[in-house]
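The freezer alarm interrupted the setup, so I double-checked each line after restarting. Inputs confirmed:
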Amino acid sequence: MKTVLITLVGALVLGAVLLAATGANPLEAYRAIVTGAFGPDGIQDTLAYAVPVVGMATALAIPLRAGMVNLGGEGQLVLGAISAIVVGRHVPGVLGIVAALAAGALAGALYASVAAVCETRLGVPLLVSTLLLSYPAMSFAAYLVRFPMRDAGSSLPQSEQLPPDVRLPAVTDGVTVGLFLIVAAVAVFAVVDARTPAGFEARVTGWGPRFAAYAGIERPGLTVRLLACSGGLAGLVGAVVALGFPYRFIDGALITPQYTWIGLLAALLAAANPLGTLVAAVFFAALTSGGFAMERVTQVPRELTAVLQAVLIIFLAAATGLLRRRRSPA
Amino acid sequence: MIDAALFASALGALTPILFAALAGALCQRAGVFNISLEGTMLVGAFAGVAGSWYTGSAWLGVLLAVVAGTAYSLILAVGHVSFGGDAIVLGVAINLLAVGLTSFLIRTVFGTRGTFSDPALQGLPDLDLGGIPVLSGHSLLVYLSWLAVPALAVLLYRHPWGLRLRGVGERPEAAASLGVSVTRYRYGVILAGGALCGLAGAQLALGNVTLFSENMTAGRGWIAVVAVMLGRALPWGVFAAALLFGLAEAFGFRLQGIGLPQQATDAAPYVVTLVALFVSSARIRRRAST
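Predicted 3D structure, all chains:
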C-alpha cells in the first residue's frame, strides 16, 4: 500500500513536469481533473465510464489471480456486445433482456475457453492465443455491422437499434442498471476469491505454479475455468454496454475508449486483488473523465491522463521488483 | 492472383515486422521476454516523422527514430534489469505509454489530432536496383532489414559476444560465474532492440507511407512477438515467420480485389499465425515424444 502511494506521488510529480513543459499550471490542471471527475457535472461521466472499466478490470483480474494474462479482452467484449444485439433483436420484453445478457456472457466465455484450450491442448501460450484470437473477433463484428446487420437508414457502420422493451432501464444519464450487475460481479469475485476452495486454488497457482502442481491442483482445468469466467464477464460487460444508450452496436465504440487496456492496467496495479482492482479501476476511470475537464480548462491534451496511468504502472512494477529483490537477496 | 506485385507488397509489409522480430529474438536469446516492441515501434514512427518534418531530411528522421527507440527502450532496461520489475507488466504499460505519449505529442507538436501528413513531409526514396522485378523499388531500410538477418546469425553463432549473450539467456548464473556481466548484456540487447524497433517505425511511417497516425503500428509489434515464438528466436526462423505474415497481409489485400470483405482479410494474418503456431508446437511435441 505504501509502495502504491509513493509511486502515485512519483507519477504525479512527473505529470506536473510534463504539464509545466507544455506551459500549463500543474496545480490548476490537477484541480481541473479532480473537479471534472467528481464535481456535479463530472460524476455522471465518471460513473458511465467506470462501469465498463471496472467490469473489464475484474474480468481480467480473475485469471491474473492465478498469474495468467488474458490479453484478448477486446475480442471477448465485442463478441459479447454483438451477441447481445443479435438475441435482443429477436426476443422481446424482459425475457429478451435476460436472454441478451446471457448470450453476451456465453459468447465471451466460449471464446475465451477456445483460447484456454489453445494453451492446454495445442501448446500455444495463453498470452499469445488470447491476443491473436482477439483480432478475428473484432473483424467479425466489424463485418457483421457493415453487411448482414447493418442499419439500412444510416451511413455509419452500426447495427439497428434494439426495440424499446429490450433496453436496460437508466439509473441516471448514461448509467443503466447494468451498474448493479457489474457491482454484483465484483462482489462475487471478492467472495469466491477469499472464501472458497476455487479462489484459493487460483491464488496458490498465482503464488507458485510448481508448488500448485505439487499440491495437486490441475492446471489445464483451472486455466479453462478461469478463462471461461474471465471471458464470460467480459462478454457480459459488452452486453451491458450494448443494452444501454445508444442501444446498438457501433463499430469501434467498445475499442476506442480503451476499456480493456485501462482495465488491464487497473488489475495489474492492484495485483488482481478484487477490491483493489475495483478501487484502481474507479481511479483510472475518474482520471480519464477528469482529463476531458482538464483539456477544457487548461488546453492541455487529455491524452496526458493516459500517460500518467502508464507511468504509474511502470513505477509500480519497478518498485515491486526492487522490494522483492531486497527481501530475497539472491 | 499470384504475381510479382503480390510479392513486392509482401516485402513492404515484411520490413517493420522483421526489424521488430529481430529485436525480440535478440532479447529472447539473452533471456529477456520483450513485449514492448509495439510501443517502441510507435515511438520510432513518431520520432521519424517529427525528425523528417523539422530537418527536411528523411534520413535525419530515421536517425532520430533510432535514437528515440533506443532511449525509449531504456524504460524496460532500467525497470526490468536494474529494478527487477516484471517484464510483462512493464511491457503492457510501455505499450500503453507509447499510445498516450504519441497522441499527446501529435497534438502539442503538430497541433492536429489523429493523423499528421503534409505534402512537404519527406519520405524515404525508393531504390531502383536496375529494374529487377519484385526486389526493386523499396527503401534502403528494406534491404537493410534483410542484411540484418545474416548479421544477427553471425553475431549469435560466430562471435564471442553471441556466445556470451546466449549463455546469459540460457544459464545466467553460469555466465556470471565466468565473469560475463548479465546486467550489461541485457542492457545491450534491450537498447539494440530499441534501435531496431526505431528502424521498424521509420520504415512504417516514412517508407510504406509518409505520415504518422495514432496507433499506426496496429498490432505489428505483437505479431513480431509471435514471430519470435514461431521462429524459436532463430534469425532465419524469425525471418520465415515474419515473411509468412507479410505474405498473409499482402494476400489479404489481393483477396479484397476479388470481392471478399475487408474484415475477413484483416483477420487472415492472425488466423494464419495461430495455425502456424499449432503446427509448430505439434511438431515439437511429436519430436519430444519419440
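Quick read of the result. The longest helix of chain A spans residues 93-120.
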